[in-house]
Amino acid sequence: MSSDLVIVYHRQPYEEVEVDGRIEYRENSSPNGIVPTLKSFFGRVDHGAWIAWKLADDPADPGFEKRVEMDDAHGQYTVSRLPLTADQVREFYHVTSKEAFWPILHAFKERYNYDPVDWQNFREVNHAFAEAAAAEAALGAVVWVHDYNLWLVPGYLRQMRPDLRIAFYHHTPFPSADIFNVLPWRREIVQSLLAADIVGFHIPRYAANFVSVAQSLFDVDVDTRQPVPEHLISEGTALTERSMVERLVHDGRQVTVSVAPVGVDVDFIRDRAQAPETAELAERIGEELGEARLILSVGRTDYTKGGVEQLESFERVLEANPDLHGKVRLMHVSVSANRGMAVYAEVQNEIEQTAGRINGRFGSLDWQPVSLMSNAVPFDQLVAYYQKADVAWITPLADGMNLVCKEFVAARTDGKGVLVLSEFAGAAVELHAAVIVNPFSHKSMDQAILQALSMDEEEQRARMALLQDAVRGSCIAEWGNAHRRLFDSIPRETSLRLTA
Ligand code: GDG
Question: Which Pfam families match (predicted)?
């Protein structure tokens, strides 16, 4: 019980590498993402802790290292590892989280699969996370819980340790009540979230949906409401809201509903973009492209990311515009994070089939319209693609935020390039200057890519300058600062009473 800040995140904050039969813990090789930002919080506290799970064949194995002490550039912190068996991981993560929660969060009711869920297992795993956090947290500490697969942690934690300041952050969208309430466990989940002091989201719409879900299930009063700041209003787009609830009251307790859009590390990406190694990679991509223009699409292999719909749009555009043949290439980077799951294998198959059909229909010996990449490319290579792309085509059907579009903007040190962005990505409420597209409309999809390909340099520069201001304004450091302020705003009365 010694940490002032406990981060509960299902992944470990480092990579394990075996060196001469011994395990060494190293910084994640992927420098992007939120893990480094989360760890940077440890630099500001005396001692921090991180709770994650770790696959264990036999959780009772005495050789299993339950706690690892880290002392790195981010400070001193303990990583407490929950041993989970392969069965537990499958039930808790692949079945309950990915087959039942994920489709509902992204409003794909028809993909929701409730039958195989072992709810008791989900409770047990969440309870174990809560116990581990309670064991590490000092009196009155902040415990920051991340994402929907840990939905029940705040509730258990509040019972175990009423003194703690508990924050929960959603990285995904949060759907409206008529979709969320499909979940039979809705009351248990929302009751747990209402036990937190702060429930956080990327954008005002998800926060508004959460408030309406909470009000549909419990007696919850809105305490304070405020206008949505100008920079989060994108006129006429699907996810825009004009006012947002700041605080709820439930059972005599206040719950802050926070909005803080995740961003990227702009300086780091610009630095990589300007590195000589990246310039070399970019030059090679340029040579390979020759006169052809590059459309770039990057996203995990997931039905929410709209990869198939995008390829179908490309096919229609090539069919209707023979003048583009031989002049454009689509580079589609689609990497699967859950290779073993049937649903993702299906999406991957469909992507491969559609791309194959397009190449078969239109390709020739010296022009291949679509290139697919299914293995992760190193980050510098990705930055080189961002730099050489004439158009970044990011059209998810639903996406909590989407960091790829922000990375593309940050990488454009030349001030050019066009971003085509789905209005159903959270980022669309911030990136007003993108070409905004409705991925559910063929007409909108096809027109947007044609508009992007024909945009003159002056308009590209004007839009890119606005996009860069927006991406810098909500960079990852800002997200961190917003949370520091939020944590400081939680009253410490409970813990003070306990010490008195
Ligand atoms: C969830 C929410 C929310 C992708 N391909 C490669 C590669 N990537 C990196 C990108 C980017 C990251 O993966 C993807 O981030 P996203 O935000 O786009 O999407 P999710 O993985 O779905 O993340 C999302 C996010 O959480 C944060 O809250 O924005 O809405 O779904 O950083 O660069 N990186 C490398 N090679 C690849 O081939 N190196």
Answer: Glyco_transf_20 (PF00982)
